[in-house]
Structure formats: structure tokens, C-alpha cells
Amino acid sequence: RSKEQGRGRGTAYHADMDALLRQRMNLERALRSAIEEQQLRLHYQPVVDARTAQVVGGEALVRWQHPERGLLMPDAFIGVAESSGLVRPLGAWVLRAAAAQLARWHAMGLGGLQISINVSALQLREPEFVESVRAEIDRYGLRPGSLTLELTESTLLDDSEGALRAVAALRQSGVMLAVDDFGTGYSSLAALKLVRPDRLKIDRGFVHDLPAAADDAALIEAMFGMARALDIEVIAEGVETPAQRDWLAMRGGHLQQGWLWSKAVPPDDFVAAVEQHRRAAKR
Ligand code: C2E
Ligand code: MG
Ligand code: MG
Ligand code: MG
């Protein structure tokens, strides 16, 4: 590296910065056209009731079918989407696509199925956001309660005024609200008190070292107790092992999401998973 060579230090730094900035701008431009050119996809990760092994719902997770780089995961582009504001049109696309998919599934007879989508802070603060949620629900004739919006603690608490007003209006519209990555923010309890969500999703960081980690186990039991007292449903994220599944299920954590059950999969595979579990449950 030129830095170690003791020469042109500032220049090398600028060159690096330039390269990074250029890369960022290229990514931003590509993402903008990806949204317009329908390169985004939704994959769905099953939410399973561990008591019956039935799929009770799914989380829509965005992917980018990049013409050269293949299928990209959100960590490759959500950051740029957030900082550029593109997360607004991206989020609008996700909302529309998930609502349309849910309507098709209901029409196919997958009745009780619920779908959740992730909503970013920028989206929630858009003045038209709540109206757009209502509009999509109407357009596809959905039962509002079949759609869940996942919001993180920081999204809920960042600019409290706007965010809380939106939350109140969403609650009125009948959609379900979930706190995502619960326990990782600085104000998890404040988020619960202010929002009174229908659900909380325990961040997979708490699940990862179960059942051995006594501290995580104690924290999760406390979350279950709190949720029960407040009548909030809990979904445990990141369930990867049978030991985690059983430990959670024995303590009331039967709603689970994780690679043990299934990764996020394309819509057709999701339907197959729903039907396979339904057949298995009937036997
Ligand atoms: P999230 O909402 O917490 O979603 C769960 C993430 O955990 C997903 O990653 C999922 O694939 C992954 N996961 C599920 N089960 C397991 C497991 O057992 N082990 C491990 N290690 N991971 C598991 P993904 O799809 O890469 O999404 C990452 C994040 O990107 C999401 O975290 C969410 O914050 C964001 N994201 C995804 N789709 C959207 C979207 O449509 N809009 C917005 N604003 N953000 C999105
Ligand atoms: Mg989520
Ligand atoms: Mg999460
Ligand atoms: Mg997350």
C-alpha cells in the first residue's frame, strides 16, 4: 500500500475515497433502475408454530436479481437504499408486491395466511405512508389484520412525533404492528410502552447461544413474561437447532422463524412449504 510506502499518502486516501464514492454512486444508480425495471424480488420466510409444525405466516424479504451479480441479499443494498432515500420507492414496491401476493394466496385457498413486511424509518415518516398502506389493502381486498408491518425500536422512537402519529393511524387501519429485532435497541421497553405492538420478534442474537447461555436464557424468559403480561405475541427469530426449538417451545415460544424450519424462499416454494406442513398436520 502506498500509505506504508510513505509517499503520496493524501493522494492515495483521496483515490480510495473517490473509488468508494464512485462505487456508491454506481450502486445507487443501478438500484434506482432496478426498482423501475422490476429486478427486485420478494422471498418469503415461513413463520412456524412449533407445536404443530404448521406454517402460520411468512416474512417478505427483499432480494435484487442483479443482471450480472446474481441474486443480492439486502445487506448488499439496503444501506445505500436508506442513505439515498431510495428505500422509499423500494418500500412502496415491497408493499405493493406483498399485498398482491397475499391476495393471490388467499384466492388459492391459503386462508389464514399472514404476511409481514419490513418498514424503514424513512418510509414511516413519509406523510403519505399510512394512506399508501390503506390503499394497497383496499386495492387487493385484503383483511387489514392479515398484513403485519415490522418496525425496529429505533424506527419507532427516532423522531417520535411523526413516527408515533403514523403508528396510531396504522393501528386505526387495522394492520398488525410488530417490533423487529426486539432487544437490540436502546429503548426496547419504551418502544413497547409507546406502541403496544401486536407482536414482538426476539432478535436472533438472543437465540443463537441457546440453550447453553444462561444470560440469554434469562433475558428471553423475561421477554416472554413481559409479552404475556401485555398480551403481545412473540416470534423467536434465528432458530437454527432442534435444541433451540425445543427450549423455546417449552417456555411458550412456539412461534418461530429460522433456518431450522426454512430459509426465505421464492413464492412457489413458500406455497409448497405451507401445503406440506398442512398435509403433515392432517396425518
Ligand atoms: P430482519 O427483518 O430481521 O429479517 C431477518 C433476517 O434474518 C433475514 O435476512 C433472514 O434471512 C435472516 N434469518 C432468518 N432465519 C435465520 C437463521 O436461522 N439464522 C440466521 N443467521 N439468519 C436468519 P435478510 O433476508 O438478509 O434480511 C436482512 C435485513 O434486511 C432484514 O432483517 C431487514 O432488516 C432488512 N430487509 C429485508 N427486506 C427488507 C425490505 O423489504 N425493506 C426494508 N426496509 N428492509 C428489509
Ligand atoms: Mg423483519
Ligand atoms: Mg428481525
Ligand atoms: Mg433487521
UniProtKB/TrEMBL annotation:
- The stretch of residues making up the signal peptide is none
Domain annotation EAL: ranges: 24-278
Name-wise, this protein is: EAL domain-containing protein
The protein's organism comes out as Ideonella aquatica
* Complete-protein stretch covered: 390 to 672 of 672
